[in-house]
Amino acid sequence: MSQSATGADTTWVYRWEDNFAGGNPTDDTWKTFGRDVTVGTLEGSNNAVRMFDPGSREAKEIIETNFDGSFSVNFTLSNPWWIRAVISSATTSGSSAPYTHTFSGEMPSSMELMQGLKTRDQERLLLGCIVTSCTIDATVPDEVTISLDGAYATEDPSVDVTSLTSQVASEVRPYTYAETQLHLAGSPLRKIQDASLTIENNTDIIEELGNRFGVDYSPKERNPSINYTSIVGEQNEDKLARMYGGSAADGPADRVTNKEEIRMIFDNGQSGSATQSIEFVLTGSFPDSHSRSGIGDPTAGLEDELDEMSLSVEAIAENNRDTPL
Q1: Does pTM top 0.85 for this prediction?
Q2: How far apart are CA 28 and CA 26, in angstroms?
Q3: Residues 96 and 90 sit within 8 Å (Cβ to Cβ)
């Protein structure tokens, strides 16, 4: 009797490349992105083109052009190592736990992705995988979720393997909204209901004559932005005044100059070697737009939402590992 496969029969792990789509990297440690990992998209395309001849409205041939791979992965935040694919590799400091890992730079790393199918002893090795965009969502009363969209250059499938690559389990407790804070100009914001940080890398896979597969990747402009929503109250910050660029009583300013640092902080609240924290630091954040919801509705809270554009982003993680994965 044949067995119909489910998502429980699959594996999904990654490791860092030395050379884009080069295979056989020195990194031999397969990693997981976090908890509750699911793959939303895994698609390879030959970008087929129909070829016509005069005298007929039907194609005479179909040919391939460039190979184009795409993927998306969603997971609950637990470890920081995937940030290397979004921002840069990490530099580590500290002589004992907790160690500090700083992801700061302009060149994200490419990786290999392995997707296995246990019921068929089959694996698909995706080469030259890069992250084009990343979204980090924290919403009351849920866990913190990450969405990555990416592209890849080619595949190396292996059927009837004798030993499948094992699924790696996350050893770190995942973060929830209760372990999340948002700081503006060094002060915590109050009554925040949700916050969403987006990092657009605008990364392209580079092609060349004589090869229909990607040979390199090129990150273009990086655009970090964040939007957050809070319940309006007497004791929390005036989001409308921030959008105005001055006092709420004065209305929109001629020039909005109140660029500030915003930090999105995830912290397990432990100390010493038990510390597990991740901070995303957005510099030069500029209030782009403000909206208010719940007006006139006695069943809803009155909420202010602020969208901010930032100049740059880095991430700082603290944990008990002396070297990054």
Answers
A1: yes
A2: 6
A3: no
Write the DSSP symbol of residue 298. Answer: T
- Span 225-247, pLDDT tens digits: 999 999 998 766 789 999 999 88
Chain centroid to CA 189: how far? 23
Q: Considering the chain, what percentage of its residues have pLDDT values greater than 90?
A: 90
For 91, 117, 169, 172, the CA distances from 14, given in Å and listed in that order, are 20, 15, 12, 17
Q: Are 99 and 7 in contact (CB under 8 A)?
A: no
Instruction: Evaluate whether 150 touches 219 at the Cβ level (below 8 Å).
Output: no
Q: Report CA-CA distances (Å) from 53 to 16, 50, 57, 86, 188.
A: 46, 10, 8, 46, 67
From its phi and psi, is residue 82 left (phi > 0), alpha (psi between -120 and 50) or beta?
alpha
What three-state secondary structure class fits 284?
Answer: strand
Element (H, E) at 24: none
The closest alpha carbon to 74, from 111, 38, 113, belongs to 38
- What amino acid is encoded at 240 in this protein? L
pLDDT number for residue 271:
96
Cβ within 8 Å of residue 214, ≥6 positions away: 20, 21, 66, 67, 128, 152, 153, 154, 205, 206, 207
Burial class of 315 by CB neighbour count within 10 A (0 to 12, 13 to 18, 19+): buried
């080469």: which residue's tokens?
A: 127
3-state DSSP call for residue 239?
A: helix
Token representation of residue 249: 């009583």
Helix (H) or strand (E) holding 312: strand 312-319
- What the block records as the tokens of 136 is 């980090």
Q: Is 2 exposed, middle or buried (0-12, 13-18, 19+ CB in 10 A)?
A: exposed
